[in-house]
Amino acid sequence: MNDIETATQAPNQDALVEKWLCEATPDAASRLDELARSADGKAIRKSARRAIYLLRQRGIVSLIDTGIPQEAPPVAHSEETMRAWASAYDGAGNRLFLLLLAGWDGGDSTMAQILANDELGIRNLTIERHRRREIAPVIERIEARIDDGLAIAEIEPDYARHWIEQFRRLNLKRSTTTPSGFLDIAPRIGPPIGTYEHPVVYDHVDLENGIAEAEPSSDPSDLFKLTWFDPWFLAVEEVRPWLRRWIEADDSSNVTDVEARKLARSALAKEAAVDLIPEALRGRYITRLEESADVLRRRGKSDEARMALLQARALSADVPIGDVPFAVGVVVRTLEAALEMTIESARRVADSATVVGD
């Protein structure tokens, strides 16, 4: 069964429309054209026709003679028409992109805020129109929040396109649709021109040479003290199966020696890291650290950027995940947080029972 047959029979037709729009080739336009003419549902035919129109705007036309004018010129791809900002990652793998697209008529600019997740793809989109004099204050307010935990920095437009495309591919891989309005604005963003074989942060930060007088700490606990990495936890629900053993490892009735208790918890944390941080998540953590370091570097936080990159390098080493201090550290701090939540929940239940009893 080919893609067109799948599109006309399967319920996930919107994902195929987006897939072909993302491919942006004459062959993809031909597939969209056939879908627009042969799909059973009115909504999917309309979606396919809209995708064909968007491809036309970029000079990409169907190989099939559909009556669509063939002389549509390619839209010029100019980096000067867009400015881009990107945030560091949060603990759940979310990242914010802020795109400023100049008005085609020289009037108001379009500001697009794209929230993306490194496992789920593009999740949310907000589009606003701003007058030129309104832009600077908006950007200044966002950038001013760096000490409150939101690190955001201006990045090269093509690097933004690169990452937005990567997140969009996750939507395609998972067969999930992008937020409403994304397909309309995607042609204005455009595809990346360059290729990025490694994160750009390594073009500016060399971990082997030129280290500052005071070398940044390689202890992950020091990284987690920074405001941008303090919220980095695993999902509490994921560590709950390990919580009972975590409590038992520190139970004075079982282990009385302080050092022995520490060793017991350390061994448990390493075991849990193997279970809770598979290779895919390990790779995402490396990217989160590298890209967050890039944002911090751009904002003048060089030592903090190095701290993040040192953890990324440790994660990239060919060693078991249980032997990586960063991974163990994430597990430990999540278990501790889960334990605190459990104790607090029990306290509230006890307080409620006391009030009822009174």
Write the layout of secondary structure elements.
Layout: H1 3-9, H2 13-23, H3 26-38, H4 42-57, E1 82-87, E2 94-101, E3 109-117, E4 121-130, H5 132-143, E5 152-155, H6 157-174, H7 182-189, H8 220-223, H9 236-249, H10 258-276, H11 279-298, H12 302-316, H13 325-357
Antiparallel strand pairs: 1-2, 1-5, 2-3, 3-4
Helix pairs in contact: 1-3, 2-3, 2-4, 2-6, 3-4, 9-10, 9-13, 10-13, 11-12
Structure characterization notes:
There is one protein chain. By secondary structure, the protein is α+β, with helices and mostly antiparallel strands. Helix content is 53%, strand content 10%. The protein is built from 13 helices and five strands. It has helices spanning 3-9, 13-23, 26-38, 42-57, 132-143, 157-174, 182-189, 220-223, 236-249, 258-276, 279-298, 302-316, 325-357, and strands spanning 82-87, 94-101, 109-117, 121-130, 152-155. Strands 4-3-2-1-5 form a five-stranded antiparallel beta sheet, sandwiched between helices. Strand 1 (82-87) and strand 2 (94-101) form a beta hairpin. Helix 9 (236-249) packs across helix 13 (325-357). The model is unreliable at 1-11 and 65-80 (pLDDT under 50).
